[in-house]
Amino acid sequence: MSPKHIPGVFLVLILFVNLGASAARGDVAPRVASPGASVNSPFPPGVGLKGLQVQMIDDALKLGIKHAALNVSLTALIDLDAHPDSFRWKSGGRTFYFSRGAVEGIPVLPLSTAGVRVYLILLSTVTSEPRLNRIVRPAAAREVPNGITGFNVTDPEGRRCFEACVEFLADRFSQQNGRFGRVAGYIVGNEVNSHGEWYCLGPAKTAQVAAEYLRAVRIAHTAVRRSSSDARVYISLEHNWTSRNNADPLKACPGRELLDEMNRLSKAEGDFNWHIAFHPYPENLRDPRTWRDKSALPRADSPKITFKNLEQLTRYLRRPELLCQGEPRHVILSEQGFDTPDKPDGQAVQAAGFCYAWIKVARTPGIDAFILHRHVDNAQEGGLNLGLWTHQPGSIATPGEKKQIYEVFRAAGTTDWERAFRFALPIIGIKTWDEVTSGTDRP
Fold first, then answer.
1. Using an 8 Å Cβ cutoff, are 122 and 277 in contact?
2. Helices and strands in the chain: count of H runs, count of E runs
3. What is the pLDDT of residues 349-392, one digit of tens each?
4. Whose CA is closest to 120, among 157, 172, 80?
5. pTM for this predicted structure
6. Which domain holds residue 141?
């Protein structure tokens, strides 16, 4: 959906390896394990909304985050050569091997120890290893513009490999295995209603996308339940609701249509608790003034759902036919950010966009987390500058200077928010914050 490029995803993974290796290090020798029974591990209680896709752990904790989303390439974890130092995992009567460096580079421990609720974004990324590509990449996914494929769960070998990966992660980061920290949620794939770009399955209409994606989500849910009774599994949708991100119906589908079809299939095959990780970016990713969005309408058939009409998502999920076990599915906003226009007031406008969005989320019931993207501007993000920090000239994402949004983000969710947010009122064109929430579903 957004002009994010796969080198940025790999950069995030590399950063996590560097940041997390010492903190996450536990076993000194490869451990052979197999899935155990699901344990009673109550989902961490709600502690606030503020979250971040973390690049610098210490800085993120200083900012007071309560949620963190971490990209994890399952492709980078898998070791087909069974190196002696790799982690071993028994699943379905077979032994699978996972790269020690990649596993220990996932910095769950320092975040969850600090009380942060951690979510892993599970990705299948294209690799230079042909053997691995044949296993993890759907056969029809010949075009992979951003390097991210769907999970190959229609092929038996791909399905077994995917299941073993999720089992291993869920066991390692479960409450019963507390040495490595705890993961509260697993997001399966990325922006699947734009599957031609962000979850490549090959050309596919909505029904096929829903069937293949639900199969992956169900496998992930079952794998997670073997180690945790409460860690949640989420589907990933971008902001196109009744519109598509691509004119070709074989490369994208409306988010609402995909959601409805997945719900129908889930109930027909045996419903289970999957939830929604939504990305309500502004309609124009280069304009942070989401309050101006023209395609975000106050109705259920809105072309897009952005922060301007966010209540339409939670209202839709309360429809009786969408309920699961009598309750609405949970919602987290797992990726969204605000560009910094290259103008004298660019940083102020970016920060105002965040203020507006924060007020909408805080006063819209049914949202569990608001996870900002990004921590630091990234030079490989199609010209977007979404960070709390600038990046140093000539670097990809080496932190430079704090931007105006940094202090605003720090104050969000604290008693200091009104003072920090006050500058944004005239930029948005309102006198009080109640004007932002007029017409929404306030509790």
1. no
2. 15, 14
3. 999 999 999 999 999 999 999 999 999 999 999 999 999 999 99
4. 172
5. 0.91
6. 6-278+299-333+359-374
